[in-house]
Amino acid sequence: MLDRFATFLDRHHKILLTTHENPDGDGVGAAIALAAHLKGSGKEARIVVTPGLPENLRFLDPLGWVEAFEPGGAHQELAAWPDAWLLIDASEPHRMGILFQAFEKTLADRACLDHHLKDAPAGFDAEFTDPTASASTELVYDLVRPRLGGDLPPVMAQALYAGLVSDTGNFRHSNSTPKVHHAAADLIAQGVHPARTFNALYQTATPAKLKLFGRAVAGIQLRDGGRFAYVSVTRADLAACGATHEDLDELVEEPRRLKGVEVAALFSETEDGRAKVSLRSRERVDVNAVCKQFGGGGHRLASGAKASLPLETFIFQVEAAVLGQIRLNIV
Ligand SMILES: [Mn+2]
Description:
Elements: H1 2-10, E1 14-19, H2 25-40, E2 44-49, E3 66-68, E4 84-88, H3 100-105, E5 109-114, E6 126-129, H4 136-148, H5 154-168, H6 178-189, H7 194-202, H8 207-218, E7 221-223, E8 228-233, H9 235-241, H10 253-256, E9 263-269, E10 275-281, H11 287-292, E11 297-298, E12 302-307, H12 311-329
Parallel strand pairs: 1-2, 1-4, 2-3, 4-5, 5-6, 8-9
Antiparallel strand pairs: 7-8, 9-10, 10-12, 11-12
Helix pairs in contact: 2-4, 2-5, 4-5, 5-6, 5-7, 8-9
């Protein structure tokens, strides 16, 4: 797959790198590392994200490569710029959010690079996916490492390491393979600081975020004898704490800490009033199967979905699906 991907990159010269909306450390890390590689190979590469680069990922972009999408302003002509448009860390065009408007119009070759479990991606001219990879940054690492040998540019090493940390939950999740640890060791040997990376990524809470976590955890719900635990957050909860949607990051880890929990969930209202769920499975329950019932997806142990339903209705429906899946997977 990576040879095909390398050939695809070789054939193009102005490459636009994008990731899913509300970009995470893996999507951004992969984009920055790949941009460093492409620029180093004499190509033009740009990174455009929406709605912008989260505060805790700014340290990955010391050269200011990442552009926040401005459809009416600077990016009115974005569709015409690239000869290849790459979606990283997702394989469904609509995951790009409002960037999709420009994606739809572009005459560039459209491709995706992803490690999520999906049925065959549609809406692309080429797809480069490997669900056995732990992170998109692992795919980029595998692409660039044999080609660069020796020293990696510091920006690239830092971006790759941060992406691996993000998608493995700091090497705690089931995707923390020997291969990921070998890559991480190599990146540390290249000069990346693990503790500084962890601090920059995670030790960034505001009082508003901690208040939101407290409020959500105080309302924790347990079902099925404690095998399913969830918290939920409405827009009113966010407002009451002075918190933003970015503050929801990692909240799903709280119900997951309970002993005996097989599936943990975070339900929330999106900015546009839809209902959203993030599901995490300890080990045995396939939460991807649950999310697929609602048009979402991800991985077997970490998955999500959105629906145009009132939050309470969505919680009710997802809860039924989770309990059904628990019954199916745990004898
Ligand atoms: Mn990822």
